[in-house]
Design a protein that fits this description.
Oligomer: single chain
Largest sheet: 7 strands, mixed
Shape: globular
Helix content: 25-40%
Structural class: alpha/beta
Strand content: 15-25%
Distance between the termini: 24 Å
Radius of gyration: 18 Å
């Protein structure tokens, strides 16, 4: 994967990405999290891990629900919220009993995450850090989790080595990502992708396989073909006090999608993937 900034360096690419995300997170930090822990859990569930066809607030809720469910009981585990942003995933797992650390390249995001942890009384610890230069000890984490972060860090040298290093032997990493192996989906993305400085790499199975080649076990669970059209649907108003309203049309499309994807070669063209790694 080519990675060259305006001055021909990796550092200039990373600097542009950090500045973009600092501005983005700083602009939204004031309302990143609600005031109470109960409200936070309610908003996180509806906004991140409820299936879109069942009324969830996110297009990506289906696969992220599946990823969360696959973790099982996290109580007592050392968990790293990888590329944590405002720390929502880590805070959610912390209130489930996990020992949580998190990092992100953006300092405003980390400040908001730590502020929320203090407000909710959760012992999560978030730090500004570079995925290519993690300072956590070797063999430290039982579990690493991340939503929509591999497509940011995969292009930087040494991120794979640091991810492997901080996991305990037998430890697992679970990521949810979007895929760029389908040319029709890619065409639509031309109109919806962020500015280039956001650092979104075009993640393909080939790139994931390269990144994960040193792990003992790699499993890719690809999801959603026609159901990816949900990306064109208007997201609902986020009213934390309202019940989720199922979307029968999207439930039907999802059901058809699942039947079609029983034809395994078609899974190559899916638009999302859950990545399961074991050291």
């Amino acid at each position: 994967m080519a990675l060259v900034g305006d001055d021909g360096s990796v550092d200039s690419v990373k600097h542009a990405e950090r500045e973009w995300h600092d501005a983005h997170y700083d602009a939204h930090a004031a309302y990143a999290h609600p005031e109470s822990l109960d409200d936070f859990v309610n908003v996180f569930v509806k906004g991140q891990i409820s299936r879109f066809c069942d009324g969830g607030w996110s297009w990506w809720g289906d696969a992220r629900r599946e990823a969360i469910d696959s973790l099982g009981n996290v109580r007592g585990l050392r968990v790293l919220d990888y590329g944590c942003g405002y720390g929502g995933l880590g805070l959610y797992l912390c209130q489930k009993g996990a020992q949580v650390w998190g990092f992100d390249l953006s300092q405003p995001a980390i400040e908001a995450a730590n502020k929320a942890a203090r407000r909710f009384g959760l012992p999560a610890n978030f730090a500004q850090m570079d995925a290519a230069a993690l300072v956590y000890p070797d063999d430290f984490f039982d579990l690493v989790v991340g939503f929509g972060v591999l497509h940011h860090v995969i292009k930087y040298p040494q991120t794979d080595a640091h991810l492997l290093r901080v996991l305990k032997p037998g430890g697992e990493a679970v990521f949810h990502e979007t895929l760029w192996d389908n040319p029709l989906i890619n065409l639509a993305r031309r109109f919806t992708s962020e500015h280039a400085d956001a650092g979104d790499a075009r993640l393909t199975q080939r790139e994931i396989d390269r990144f994960c080649q040193k792990f003992r076990s790699v499993r890719l669970e690809k999801r959603h073909l026609f159901y990816m059209l949900k990306r064109l649907a208007k997201l609902p108003h986020m009213d934390q006090h309202a019940d989720l309203q199922p979307r029968p049309l999207w439930q039907a499309i999802r059901s058809v999608d699942q039947q079609i994807l029983r034809i395994r070669p078609l899974r190559h063209f899916c638009g999302e993937v859950i990545v399961y790694l074991q050291k």
